[in-house]
Design a protein that fits this description.
With 221 residues, this protein is mostly helical. It has helices at residues 3-31, 36-42, 53-60, 66-75, 83-94, 100-108, 112-124, 129-139, 145-158, 162-176, 183-188, 196-215. The chain has two domains: 1-60, no CATH class; 62-215. It is built from twelve helices and no strands. The protein is globular and about 60 Å long.
Length: 221
């Protein structure tokens, strides 16, 4: 067989091989998100900290159901914001295997339709920690500190369950502290001294102050 006749066969083989590898990689990211490095090494990949596996994963992501197709269409401006879109987003988010690589790039590009969807959700469900977490994640790619403060504060004020309130307060603190905002002290001003929420906030402040003291360098005499 001549070289010219071999080339198409080799090309077809390489394309098939690449498709198989991509399918295996996608399967690993989908089924083993917490152990993908070891799983990739098992099929011949060499781990390198400089490799951006998220980028690979996101580049290969495809819509796997109608909800995901509708969400992508919404993010691209092809569908209008609605209760149906919100419910599709929440359903996808709450699923056992959410297609994170498909959605994550829209956070990274600070997609304004995605932001409007999260805010729309918080207007309807102000206490949902998952939506607040999404808003905080969005904040990593676009400075929306004022929005973050508004919705976390509202959630803390309206939350009646003390355990959930504590979780919200911690999330509020960690989401805004890198920006220099003192969320716990701001919350402290909102609650009377004899309330359980105020006692909880005082306790959290004491805990963070102890942590700061432990982390501060000791003076050498």
């Amino acid at each position: 067989m001549s070289k010219k006749k071999k080339e198409p066969v080799i090309k077809d083989y390489k394309e098939l091989r690449d498709e198989i590898v991509i399918d295996k990689v996608n399967e690993i990211f989908r089924t083993q998100p917490d152990n993908y490095i070891a799983a990739l090494e098992e099929i011949g990949f060499e781990y390198n900290e400089e490799d951006d596996y998220d980028e690979i994963e996101e580049g290969n992501a495809r819509s796997e159901n109608q909800n995901q197709k509708d969400l992508v269409a919404f993010f691209k401006g092809e569908k209008k914001l609605s209760d149906r879109i919100l419910h599709q987003y929440l359903k996808e988010r709450d699923s056992e295997s959410p297609n994170l690589p498909l959605i994550r790039p829209f956070f990274k590009e600070a997609n304004q339709n995605l932001k409007s969807l999260i805010v729309y959700g918080l207007e309807h469900y102000p206490g949902r920690i998952d939506l607040l977490s999404d808003l905080a994640f969005f904040h990593e790619f676009e400075n929306i500190l004022r929005l973050l403060i508004t919705y976390y504060t509202r959630a803390c004020v309206t939350q009646s369950n003390l355990e959930t309130f504590t979780e919200l307060a911690w999330d509020f603190y960690y989401s805004t502290n890198p920006d220099g905002y003192e969320a716990l002290y701001a919350l402290k001003e909102l609650f009377d001294h004899d309330t359980e929420k105020r006692k909880t906030i005082d306790s959290l402040i004491a805990e963070t102050d102890e942590g700061k003291e432990a982390d501060s360098p000791k003076e050498i005499i």
